[in-house]
Write a structure and sequence with these properties.
Elements: E1 2-6, H1 9-21, E2 26-29, H2 32-41, E3 46-50, H3 55-68, E4 76-80, E5 90-92, E6 97-100, H4 105-116
Helix pairs in contact: 2-3
Amino acid sequence: MILVADDVEETRDGIERLLKADGYRVDSARSEQDAVERAERQAPDLILVSLRGPSDDTIASARRIRQRARLGEEVLVVIFCVQSVEEGAEVALGGNVYATRPDNFDQLRGLLGRLLNGSSRSS
């Protein structure tokens, strides 16, 4: 399951629709605290985080979600649309944490596919 944590409703809903259309099981959270609560109920395979604010704050927030929900480092974290990452790039930040600023959804789809190898698909 992919947990999408995004504080912009339209973006969160759009990402959720696209991921579901690709066959992923998805849950959505609108804040860091909401993401922690949802991750505690059902541990995700991957957390996709896109929260407004400086890149360093978003990265710290993503790591806190995993830590506060008591998830191990095997749970992948992808920080989406980080301004400090060059457009179209993916950066490994260590500890199964990645930052990306894709040009399009196909790039994000490719990254998620490589990281998950199909483990979060509903079928």
